[in-house]
Amino acid sequence: MSTPKYQIIYQYLSEQIRDKKIVPGDKIPNESELATMFQVHRMTVRQAINKLINDHMLVRKRGKGTFLLSEKYPVLTRSLGGIATYHDDIVQAGLEPCYRTLEARIDRTEPEIAAHLGLPQGDPVVYMKRLMLASTIPMVLERCYLPAELFPDILEKELDTVLYKIIHEFYGMNLMQARQELSSVLPSEEERKLLKISSNCPCIKVEGIVHNDKGRIIEYTRSLYRGDKYRFQCSIGRYPGFLLQPKS
Fold first, then answer.
1. Do 129 and 212 belong together in one domain?
2. Which one of 1, 9, 21, 100 has the largest count of C-beta atoms within 10 Å of its C-beta?
3. How far is Cα 95 from Cα 91, in angstroms, rounded to an integer?
4. Is residue 244 one of the residues assigned to a domain?
5. Structural domain containing residue 24
């Protein structure tokens, strides 16, 4: 069975990227040039290019052409060995981190949020809803709650950045301990649109609290990580059940 022509073009472009004949920022040959090169219709070329765009390796820029965004299919790894940030994950993957604040306001705590933060019900909290991107690709949707009394005027800060940097630099807090719970969920329609994923793409839901160096809970988060773009990693010690006991 012969290989579909669009797949041949896809493999050709993939090899050009792998061999670094095309590097991030470069414009790839246009549809007409590739159609002439492979003696195919432009729709066949477009099918191959769309596959690379769906892989988040190419990006179309209106009126300019199609450019290489990344040399590799972006998958981020989050270590569960300590307190980490999205910025750490994305830089480690060699991509560009970007934050987009969708909502930011002062709310009154609902019973569940108050319980997580150790606050009386109705106390004011800072609520932020943010989207984390990797070189324009949505990766994480975060909902964050902070005790308002600990962070006066935080809504006046530049929030499209690393939140823990703001907490440390402007409020002098050190982050000492975190607890996280992970589960698999199907996102809502609104969440799918924000993350730009299909209806059958699962997400990893991460709920967590963070303590400062005085033992106070300073943050509660509910985050959705794209299941097709994120993996979590932890190091585990020995299983103690079969350890040899010292001879008496």
1. yes
2. 9
3. 6
4. no
5. 5-68
DSSP label of 243: P
Q: Which of 121, 123, 120, 142 is nearest to 131 (CA)?
A: 142
161 and 217 inside one domain: yes
Which structure tokens are listed for 219? 């943050």
Question: 42: which 2 tokens?
Answer: 């432009």
- Number of structural domains (the chain) is 2
Tell me what percent of the chain is helix, strand and coil, each rounded to the nearest 5: 30, 35, 35
In order along its 248 residues, the chain shows pLDDT tens digits of: 678 888 899 888 888 887 888 877 788 888 899 999 999 999 999 998 888 877 667 777 778 888 776 555 556 666 565 666 667 776 666 667 889 999 999 999 999 999 999 999 999 999 999 998 887 788 899 999 999 999 999 999 999 998 989 999 999 998 888 888 889 999 999 999 999 888 888 898 999 999 998 999 999 999 998 888 777 776 666 666 655 566 65
Instruction: Indicate whether 241 belongs to any domain.
Output: no
d(CA 58, CA 27): 9
- Global pTM reads 0.68
Collapse the DSSP code of 30 into the 3-class scheme (helix H, G, I; strand E, B; otherwise coil) and give the result: coil
DSSP E strands: which ranges in the chain?
58-61, 65-68, 76-79, 97-108, 124-134, 137-147, 175-185, 203-212, 217-226, 230-233
Looking at this protein, which amino acid is placed at residue 3?
A: T
